[in-house]
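[step 3/7] fold_predict: job queued, chain A
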Amino acid sequence: MKGRARLKVARDAPDAVVVGSGPNGLAAAITLARAGRSVVVYEGAETIGGGMRSAELTLPGYVHDVCSTVQGTSVASPFFAGLDLAKHGVELVQPPIPVAHPLDDGRVALLERSVEATAAGLGVDGRAYRRLFGPLVREAGLTLPFILGPSLRIPRHPLAVARFGLDALWPAAPFARRHFRDDPAQALFSGLCAHSMVALERPVTASFGLVLAMTAHAYGWPVVRGGTQRLADGLAAELRALGGEIVTGHPVASLDELPAARAILFDTTPRALVSIAGSTLKGAYRRRLAGFRYGPGVVKLDWALDGPIPWTAEGAGRAGTVHVGGTGAEIAAAEAEVARGRHPERPFVIVVQASRFDPSRAPDGKHTGWAYAHVPNGSGLDISERIEAQVERFAPGFRDLILARSVRLPADLEADNPNYVGGDINAGIEDVRQLFTRPVARLDPYSTPARGIYLCSSSTPPGGGVHGMCGVWAARSALRREFGHRR
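[step 4/7] structure written:
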């Protein structure tokens, strides 16, 4: 096209190159290979997977997931629904309860697979919970495929999407107070919304709680038996079966280091795209990419434990994920502190205890666990003591079970995965400005002004999570623009 730089194509070059082997990079490569295109994936690290990797971070025999463990958006993803990963040895394990949220007075909110069972445990707010989530969960199969796609498109089920959208636009904190009267329901919903890593008084933060509750009810929040690395390995096996190739230990610093393919898709942040391919990008577009904003970072702890976490609240031990942070008001206050660039004394903490349901992650009788809390982007403050104090608050005796711990600050996370700029595991803040315009306002957010250059990371819609849909949509864009494929 006139005015666009063209990649030089060699006869022996693959049709497409993907830079990065995270869930979106592998999803993009598989989508391209399924369309009959030759694909090579280049990964800078020695192991594939990005946020899907696992490692012995504490003691030998203890398997820890480097980032992602709970696969709620994976099972809800149209991409994963079209894969038979079981043939590659991937097995999902469903905890009986997706999420538990204990309170200081001994009460606990349990988000169970059933909306009715969840509502029954919420006392005076049971009817309100049933009224809110009953319709949303019944229509999850209609709305979630739209939610997991580009923002600027016509929904196939507009009424269902509109019903979701009217609630999704709300700030989380006032939404929780408006719908629920008592602490358990308010805390449960606030904890789900806090996964947004945005202050809960900001618009559209309610959408995160709605989507996460929908996935938990409709699909569960499973974990991968043996560690999330096996999911990455399953995707790699699928790609290779389709004729694709993966090259590890090959960091890419410039386009000159890549074959001159017709399409190059970057499973990277805008910052890395500018660094690698900036000379091919128009000045205005490049400046807009440079203005892409990153959100709070996290401090992540992994533990080797002498036993299961001894939660006081009945039912918390049957949950794969436990939200630790007290009432909804406490959670909102903690997230507001992070948004102001501060470190809350009592941070909101997300705890995952996968070994309760997958004993293969630890030696007999032992357990693993991990937790993270939000901190200002790029923070160098070790808040592991505050995180563990929050867990001890609801599980007295927890600290006595710790055999070894791994503490990773934002800089450690970014060194491990360059997409986590300043420790931002969502690869870009997902506030109202950037949730709908990732990475910039553009009809096709995956394409760039440079012919053949695409962005396929979670810095594009629909954002963070192991769902692969950013990669799928970017690959479809490349197939349409570069190869003339029509859906």
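[step 5/7] annotate
The longest helix spans residues 469-483.
The first strand starts at residue 16 and ends at 19.
exit 0
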